[in-house]
């Protein structure tokens, strides 16, 4: 064998492990229904990770939102995903829908508060939450935190409705066709969600708010949610109202590699355009502040590392377990 051939073979052998080591780590992100404005946010996050987090390759999967994502993370079907702060707290504590079955779940960041908007057709003849009794009504897309929380709120307040289950697309079509009177849908900050605006294009809508008495009851009996006042202008012609809310963020099991989590959180926290373009509320909100305000479970060690580097002292509830 001549010297040149040996040299070429040696060079080829040397490059094989280097090429293998250079392969990106695939990250699968669980999101929500593709018709939701939150899905667009996760598409932006996926692109941001691909551009800014060296060695990571992210893909976004349409899912049934929080409950579905927690189940998928437990089965190793997704690496991280959308979670709401109230259901995340239930999962970690092993309460409510997770009674006696605590889940391995940590928080990466919170990107918005999610007012829960009770949207109803204006011609349904319903002008209060109590008026929903026996009315065909969707409490939230199947498997979502909105569905679970709506049912808990209605139970707490002694309310009822004729619940109709389905995906966002199914329910939006049913409301347009007047087969269902309305639904509960997370807002985009203090604005109505894209799917609600789709309904409002050809159908007059109204938003049903809490009475002062109902708001006081929720504050006293459901500490895992917040009661918020939404100013006039959530959409054209919508007056101010009061409703319940929780934070929406991104969770991951503690088994997610710390360096991977750190790279993702760093890319998200240092971005000032991509996420705001996908979700308008982020043009004014600070994700680190939202995380500190709405977070209900300990941060992933990789996320906590980023906060520590910024000199931010984490509240006890957000500190990772030692």
From TrEMBL:
Keywords: Signal. InterPro entries: TRAP_TAXI. Pfam families: NMT1_3. Residues 1-22 form the signal peptide. The lineage of its organism: Bacteria, Pseudomonadati, Pseudomonadota, Alphaproteobacteria, Hyphomicrobiales. NCBIfam families: TRAP_TAXI. The keyword Signal applies. It comes from the Bacteria. The keyword Iron-sulfur does not apply. This is TRAP transporter substrate-binding protein.
């Amino acid at each position: 064998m001549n010297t040149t051939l040996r040299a070429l073979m040696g060079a080829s052998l040397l490059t094989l492990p280097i090429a293998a080591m250079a392969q990106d780590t695939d990250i699968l992100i669980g999101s929500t229904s593709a018709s939701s404005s939150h899905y667009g946010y996760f598409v932006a996050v996926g692109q941001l990770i691909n551009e800014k987090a060296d060695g990571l390759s992210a893909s976004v999967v349409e899912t049934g939102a929080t409950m579905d994502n927690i189940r998928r993370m437990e089965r190793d079907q997704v690496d991280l995903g959308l979670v709401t702060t109230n259901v995340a707290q239930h999962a970690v504590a092993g309460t409510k829908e997770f009674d006696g079955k605590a889940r391995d779940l940590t928080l990466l960041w919170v990107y918005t508060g999610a007012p829960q908007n009770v949207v109803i057709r204006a011609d349904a003849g319903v002008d209060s939450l109590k008026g929903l009794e026996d009315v065909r009504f969707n409490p939230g897309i199947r498997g979502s935190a909105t569905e679970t929380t709506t049912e808990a709120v209605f139970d707490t307040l002694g309310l009822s409705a004729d619940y109709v289950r389905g995906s966002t697309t199914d329910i939006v079509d049913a409301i347009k066709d007047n087969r269902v009177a309305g639904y509960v849908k997370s807002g985009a900050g203090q604005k109505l969600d894209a799917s609600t605006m789709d309904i409002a294009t050809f159908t007059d809508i109204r938003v049903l708010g809490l009475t002062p008495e109902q708001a006081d009851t929720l504050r006293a009996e459901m500490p895992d949610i917040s009661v918020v006042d939404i100013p006039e202008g959530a959409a054209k012609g919508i007056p101010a109202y009061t409703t319940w809310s929780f934070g929406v963020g991104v969770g991951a099991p503690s088994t997610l590699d710390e360096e991977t989590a750190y790279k993702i959180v760093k890319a998200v926290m240092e971005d000032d355009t991509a996420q705001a373009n996908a979700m308008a509320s982020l043009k004014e909100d600070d994700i680190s502040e939202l995380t500190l305000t709405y977070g209900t479970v300990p941060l992933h060690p990789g996320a906590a590392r980023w906060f520590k580097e910024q000199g931010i002292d984490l509240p006890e509830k957000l500190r990772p377990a030692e």
